[in-house]
Amino acid sequence: MSENNELERLRAESAGLRAELEETNQGVLALYAELDKQAEQLRQASELKSRFLSYMSHEFRTPLGSILSIARLLADELDGALGVEQHKQVAFVASAARELSDMVDDLLDLAKVEAGRITISPAWFELMDLFSALRGMFRPIMDATEADLIFEEPENMPRLYTDDKKLAQILRNFISNALKFTPRGEVRVSAHLEDDGRMRFAVSDTGIGIPPELQDSLFEDFTQVDSPLQKRLRGTGLGLSLCRQFAHLLGGEVGVASTPGAGSVFHVVLPLKLPMDETHAAE
Asked: Which domain holds residue 93?
C-alpha cells in the first residue's frame, strides 16, 4: 500500500513539474514574441531616423548652397564695393554657413552608415598626394589661427590601396578638431609603418587636451568635449563617431591619447591594402 502511495506521489510530482515546465515554456514563448516585437519596433525607429536625417540633410543643402554663393558674390564685390566692416560681416555669414554645411554632411553620412548605404571605392594612391590635398584644403583658414599646421613629408612610404576620400575625411576631421582646440602652438600630421605592416596616421596637437574620463566616449555619437572653447565652437558631436565607423569600413581602427593641458594625439591605423571582403561588405 505504501508503494502505491509513493507511486501516486511521484506521479503527482511529475505532473506538477510538467505543468510548471509547460507554464515556463509558454512564458518563454511570450517573451520571445515580445522581444521580436520590440526588435521590429527598434528596426523601424532606426530606419525612420535614418530616413529623417537623410531627408533633412538633403533639404538643408540647397539653401546653404545659396547662402554660400551669395556670400561669395558679395565678398568678390561683383555688385559694388564693400567697407571693411561689411567684409567682416560677409565673412561671418560665410563661416557660419560652412559650419552648418559641415554639420549637414555629418548627419547625411551618419544616415548612410546606419542604412548600410556607404560606398567604399578603393584605389591605389600615394601618401604625398593625400597630404598635398589636405594641406591645400586647410590653407585658406590658417590665416585665422595662431597655430601652425605641419605635415611631415611621407618619404619612402608605400602606396595604399583604400578609399582615399574616406581616409581624407577622417584626417580632415582630426585636423579640424585639433585646430579648434589649439589656440596657439602646432598641429602635426604624420604617417609611418607599424611593425605589423599597417599604416598609422597621427594628428598631434599642443592644445588643451582631454580629461581621461572623456577619452573612452569620444568616438560615440553626439559626444563633445566640455570646455570653455567648446562652448564657443558649434558642432554635432558626430565627426569622431563617423571617423570610427569609416575606419572600421576600411578595415582599421581609431584611437586617442591625451594629457589635459599638454595636447592630444588622434590616430587611425589601416591596412596597406583594403581586404576584398571589407569592400563588398560596405556596398
From this structure: 1-117
The per-residue pLDDT for range 134-163, each reduced to its tens digit, is 999 888 787 778 889 999 988 889 999 999
User: Is there a single domain that holds both residue 128 and residue 236?
Assistant: yes
Strand order in the sheet with 184-193: 146-151, 184-193, 199-205, 263-270, 253-259
CA 94 from centroid of its chain's CA atoms: 24
User: Cβ distance 138 to 175 under 8 Å?
Assistant: yes
128 and 109, same structural domain? no
CATH number of the domain where residue 24 is located: 1.10.287
Phi, psi of 263 (to 5 degrees): 120, 180
Looking at the structure, tell me whether residues 82 and 27 fall in a common domain: yes
Residue 193's φ and ψ, nearest 5 degrees, are -85, 135
Whether the full predicted model's pTM is greater than 0.70, yes or no, is no
Same domain, 6 and 83: yes
Q: How confident is the model at residue 38 (pLDDT cuts 50, 70, 90)?
A: confident
Beta bridge partners of 161: 124, 273
